[in-house]
Amino acid sequence: MKVIEKKLVFLVCFFMFVIEGFAEKCELYDEIPAQGSISEKQGHEYWAKIYEVFSHPRCTNCHVGADNIPMWSGPSYGVTRPHGMNVSAPVIGAHGTRGGSDSFECSSCHTTTNNTIAHGAPGVYNEDMDGEKVSWVLPPVDFEWFGKTSKEVCEQVKDSKRNGGKENAKEIADHLCHDKFIAWSWKPGAGRESAPYSLKENIADVLAWGAAGMPCPEY
Amino acid sequence: MADYVEINVNGVRHRLDIRHKRTPLLWILRDELKLTGTKYGCGIAQCGACTVHINGLSRRSCVTEVGELTEDDKVITIEAADSTIAKAVKESWVQHQVAQCGYCQSGQIMSATALLSKNKNPTDDDIDRVMSGNLCRCGTYPLIRKAIKTAAKSLTEANNG
Predict the structure, then answer these.
(1) What are the backbone angles phi and psi of residue A24, rounded to the nearest 5°?
(2) Which site in A15, A121, A176, B86 is 20 to 30 Å from A191, CA atoms measured?
(3) Quick check: A116 contacting B, CB < 8 Å?
(4) Among partner residues B43, B46, B58, which is closest to A103 by beta-carbon distance?
(5) Parallel, antiparallel, or unpaired: how do β-strands A100-101 and A104-105 relate?
(6) Is the pLDDT of residue B122 over 90?
(7) How does pLDDT run across B48-65, given as a tens digit for each residue?
(8) Please, are residues B46 and B101 in contact by the beta-carbon 8 Å criterion?
(9) A174 CB-side CA count, 13 A
(10) Could you tell me if B118 lies within 8 Å of chain A, comparing CB atoms?
(11) What are the structural domain ranges in chain B?
(12) What pLDDT, in 10s, does the model give residues B10-50?
């Protein structure tokens, strides 16, 4: 091997080591179940639990469709209705997120700290993978869950073209682990009902569902 | 770690004790800086009376903790809202005699100014979408809408010379 090739190999290995070293490890799981170690039947049971979480108002109120209007639903609200104040959150901003309209962004009220008073606007400090602050936004329209069946949500979650490019259950689990908006669902405060189970259990369920081959229900 | 928080309000830097880190900006504006034009309404970002601009965008100062702001964030309150757009909005407000009791009006004017800085010719829907977060118990909404359109028209005419 020529000297220049050796140097190139060394550099590639070095940068891979650096990237791996800096990659933020998820503290909420240790081991990933081996592929095929969980039966399809068990996989369906794990998905049923995952759907319980994903269809909970703490998730679905912001996982809305192309009208860009978040919802107010769940025990705190009584009647299901669109978010008050006539808000709408089309795609705006440099990152192309659904973050509000014109001069009235979601973060006008949803700040980086959680409002602990009932019916106060909740908030959370969140960062993207580059450490940049992320304001309160709706998830991409592809992630529409509000009113969707278990089958529809399941097929979206495992489709890398519609789930933000996540190729497997580990990547989905890592996303669940690192996104502070998601973690907020289990610590919503102010008498808001939290999502069922725990974030740690939800991540474990996703990994187990992945090991079972990501089976989806018939409806 | 610094034992103070520095904020920039109306172009003036203020150094606050670190104990204010979790104090809502509205409290600092009114109680410490004596800028009482910004009003306390609900305290939970439901009414819009406390609206200020942070870097040109509407923010509810009652739920914005001082520690969230950096030294580079520029807070503008109604007292210093003197841009061309803000002046046009204020003049239009007077022309249409929008205010009745007036309590919510500083928040309304700040939201209207932010709207016109992003949208030079807002439709009724645009106005409703941005202004619905500012409540008015006197029900001055039709006058607010007229005043915003008048301000937009005067700004367009001024720009066209």
Answers:
(1) -75, 120
(2) A176
(3) no
(4) B58
(5) antiparallel
(6) yes
(7) 999 999 999 999 999 999
(8) no
(9) 14
(10) yes
(11) 4-80, 84-159
(12) 999 999 999 999 999 999 999 999 999 999 999 999 999 99
**Residue A49 corresponds to which amino acid?**
K
pLDDT value, residue B29: 98
Tell the burial category of A151 from Cβ atoms under 10 Å away from its Cβ (0-12, 13-18, 19+): middle
Burial level of B121, CB count in 10 A (0-12/13-18/19+)?
exposed
Angle at A171 between CA A166 and CA A174, to 5 degrees: 135
Q: Which fold has domain B84-159?
A: DNA polymerase; domain 1 (1.10.150)
Q: Which residue has the tokens 């497997």?
A: A168
C-alpha closest to that of B22 among B69, B73, B75: B69
Cα distances from A127 to residues A28, A124, A175, in angstroms, run 18, 10, 12
Eight-state DSSP code of residue A127:
B
3-state secondary structure of A157: helix
Q: For residue range A18-68, what is the model confidence (pLDDT) as tens digits?
A: 444 445 688 899 899 999 999 999 999 999 999 999 999 999 999 999 999
Question: Are A87 and B43 inside 8 Å of each other by CB?
Answer: no
**Which CATH fold topology does B4-80 show?**
Ubiquitin-like (UB roll) (3.10.20)
Beta strands in chain B (DSSP E): 4-9, 12-17, 51-54, 57-60, 74-76
Tell me which residue has tokens 């009902």.
A193
Q: Residue A70: helix, strand or coil by DSSP? A: coil
